[in-house]
Amino acid sequence: MKIVAVVGNRPQFIKAAAVSGLLRKQHEEILVHTGQHYDDSLSRIFFAELGLARPDRELGLGGGTNTAQTARMLAALGPVLEELRPDAVLVYGDTNSTLAGALAAGQATVPLVHVEAGMRSHDRTMPEELNRLLTDRIGALLLCASQTATENLRAESVPGRIVLVGDVMVDVALRRARSARDDVDTVRARGLEPGGYLLLTAHRAGNVDAPERLRALVELVRALPMPVVFPLHPRTRARLLHEGMLSELERDTRVLLSEPLGYGEFSALLVHARAVLTDSGGVQKEAYLAGVPCLTLRANTEWVETVA
What is the CATH classification number for the domain harbouring 248? Predict the structure, then answer.
């Protein structure tokens, strides 16, 4: 079979790393990178670290609103599918790349396979929730990470075939766990010791777009009781700069700001952290798998298994 796999950001690179190599042993996979992840150099680091084949097609479509970005991706993916004529399209998770891949497949009448189908936060104000709902209505084969996800899909009476396959991110986390645990140098290079700092990520619109929410985030970071490693998502950095709050964090000696990190470096910092604070579903799950306490900076989450 010829399968077009669509990826676009960090969590999807991780999931594809668990699937792509095995898929290519039996089928022809064509990997399409939409460019949803802003930083091309960081994307390259992820591909190299995870042993993921370089994309066969790179669309370079990062930036813009959710609507504009999805529209550009859909317009670009349509001709790709028309040219390649695949037997199936494979998408991961719940991003704009996921939805664009799903819509392109549906319009081209190509069967859609959705890895991580059935996840639900039950909050339709989240763009990711809409992406999940729409993708699962289009999918022909819905591959679920948990029993909860299969139950969600059955409750919605989706037309696709539902299969419980487990969580592909667990495969990657287990494969990399030893090297992350052994990597204390990454922690000490920042002047820190294992268990003596917090790791924080924040990028969702609900936390960084509104000035009052962004102010609350900054005050939270500065009030934390120990040093904080805070890799800044491009969206978060732009919002902090626009609102004049970036300099506050830069002046705080206990707040260690950085550019987005590669998978290996981030994993080492995560497993040695005292705790994690995040609004990322993927990071919630990585902390859960590593046994690191995690405070979820959201009112709800699709990864209900990670919340006590």
Answer: 3.40.50.2000
Residues forming the active site: 203
Q: Both 150 and 182 in a single domain? A: no
Report DSSP letters for the chain, one per residue: -EEEEEE-SHHHHHHHHHHHHHHHHHSEEEEEE---SS-HHHHHHHHHHHTPPPPSEE-----S-HHHHHHHHHHHHHHHHHHH--SEEEEETTSHHHHHHHHHHHHTT--EEEEEET---S-TTSHHHHHHHHHHHH-SEEEESSHHHHHHHHHHT-SSEEEE---HHHHHHHHHHHHHHH--HHHHTTT--TTS-EEEE---HHHHTSHHHHHHHHHHHHH-SS-EEEEPPHHHHHHHHHTT-HHHHHH-TTEEEES---HHHHHHHHHTSSEEEES-HHHHHHHHHHT--EEE-SS--S-GGG--
Number of structural domains the chain divides into = 2
Whether 131 and 188 share a structural domain? no
Residue 42 has pLDDT above 70, yes or no: no
Do 195 and 290 reside in the same domain of the chain? yes
Strand partners, 57: 32
Of 132, 166, 200, the residue at which a domain comes to its end is 166
Q: Are 168 and 18 in contact (CB under 8 A)?
A: yes
Q: What is the mean pLDDT of the chain?
A: 94
Is this model's pTM higher than 0.85 or not?
A: yes
Sheet containing strand 112-117, edge to edge, reads 57-58, 28-33, 2-7, 88-92, 112-117, 141-144, 161-164
Domain range enclosing 267: 175-306
Per-residue pLDDT at 46 exceeds 90? no
Which of 137, 166, 195 finishes a domain? 166
